[in-house]
Amino acid sequence: MIRLHNIERSYPLGRGQMFYVLRDIDLDIAAGDFVSVMGPSGAGKSTLLHILGMHDHGWTGEYFFDETAVHLLKAKERATLRNEQVGFVFQQYHLLDDLTVYENLDIPLSYRHYSKGERAALVADALDRFQIVGKKDLYPRQLSGGQQQLVGVARAIIASPKLLLADEPTGNLHSSQGEEIMELFRRLNEEGVTIVQVTHSEKNASYGKRIIQLRDGWIV
């Protein structure tokens, strides 16, 4: 599903010098995989995730997503591919504060070719699946951290993306809330969703099928 070859990300330091965040990354991720990316702060974990999610465009190398050569796409084409195929779960939730739970779930559907009725049905299904029907008219500030992250996960998968990316998804949650989210990830993966998560937690990493260790920008 994903093939990275010789991916590098660097920033100029001046006087012709470069600071490398990622070096010579080769990585294959099969459909249905669940990969945990670990490493110390500054290892390049989040940078790798943002490259996979096509948010970061300043890298070099080759990136194939389902045989599509992402490195050859224009920015608008990458954005279309990202919106249609990739879901994101962030540590800070990134819900839109001025929208209700229902409206937050509807947002990613607006980027795709769904009718109004189809969107309403998908939102209703998500509210039911995640047991948040009673929260649909509330705003993020009226929810607990665990509830906000639950909405974040629901939003990430509502349009059935092929790839789910999670950056420290339980970092702001209590341990019991974090376990709930990780068990949810496990179920989603068993249903066929490909997941790549960045985590500092050995326990969270163990939910994955394999662990990738990054250090100083290299896979070790």
Draw up the topology in text.
Elements: E1 2-14, E2 17-29, E3 34-38, H1 45-52, E4 59-65, E5 68-69, H2 75-85, E6 86-90, H3 101-110, H4 116-129, H5 145-157, E7 163-167, H6 175-190, E8 194-198, H7 202-205, E9 210-215, E10 218-219
Parallel strand pairs: 3-8, 3-9, 6-7, 7-8
Antiparallel strand pairs: 1-2, 1-4, 4-5, 9-10
- The CATH topology name reads Rossmann fold
Shape designation: globular
Radius of gyration: 18 Å
| CATH homologous superfamily assignment | P-loop containing nucleotide triphosphate hydrolases
Mean pLDDT rating: 94
CATH class: Alpha Beta
Strand content: 25-35%
Number of helices: 7
- How far the N terminus sits from the C terminus, by CA atoms, comes to 22 Å
Name the helix and strand elements from N-terminus to C-terminus, one letter apiece: EEEHEEHEHHHEHEHEE
> Helical percent range?
25-40%
Number of E-type strands: 10
Largest sheet: 6 strands, mixed
Secondary structure category = alpha/beta
What is the domain total for the residues?
1
Low-pLDDT windows of residues: none
What spatial order of strands do you see in the largest sheet?
6-7-8-3-9-10
CATH architectural label: 3-Layer(aba) Sandwich
